[in-house]
Design a protein that fits this description.
Elements (H helix, E strand, L loop, with lengths): L2 E6 L1 H7 L11 E6 L5 E6 H4 L3 H14 L4 E8 L2 E8 L4 H8 L11 E5 L1
Parallel strand pairs: 1-2, 5-6
Antiparallel strand pairs: 1-3, 2-4, 4-5
Helix pairs in contact: 1-3, 3-4
């Protein structure tokens, strides 16, 4: 079971409202927005997957409120390293597409990408 450490703005975490399942695992993927104050949350990949649409929507809503032209979303973990440039008008569909490697059949194995 892979854990996902979410380092995201507090309003994204609040909007997402993930259930806490007492996750304790050595295999951790970190999903973080760089350069902002963040709130940490920990969930399993299996817990996060059904909430992926809500996560993408929460990030999009936050980006629409954030004044910067672009921010960087990083996803790092065993066999995955994504850096996603998020413009203010990033679409939910684009976020879902870019985060898909986390949830592929191998659990993200073998994916190293930088998307802009």
């Amino acid at each position: 079971m892979t854990s996902v450490k979410l380092l995201l703005p507090p309003d994204v975490i609040d909007e997402l409202a993930l259930p806490y399942e007492g996750v304790r695992d050595v295999s951790t993927v970190t999903l973080a927005i760089e350069g902002v104050g963040v709130l940490a949350n920990l969930a399993t990949l299996a817990t996060l997957q059904p909430h992926l649409g809500a996560l993408a929507t929460a990030i999009r809503n936050w980006r629409l409120r954030d004044e910067r032209q672009s921010v960087l979303l990083t996803v790092k973990g065993p066999d995955i390293d994504l850096k996603l440039d998020l413009p203010r008008n990033v679409s939910t569909a684009a976020l879902l597409r870019q985060l898909a490697p986390l949830f592929d059949e191998e659990g993200g194995h073998g994916h190293t990408a930088r998307r802009r």
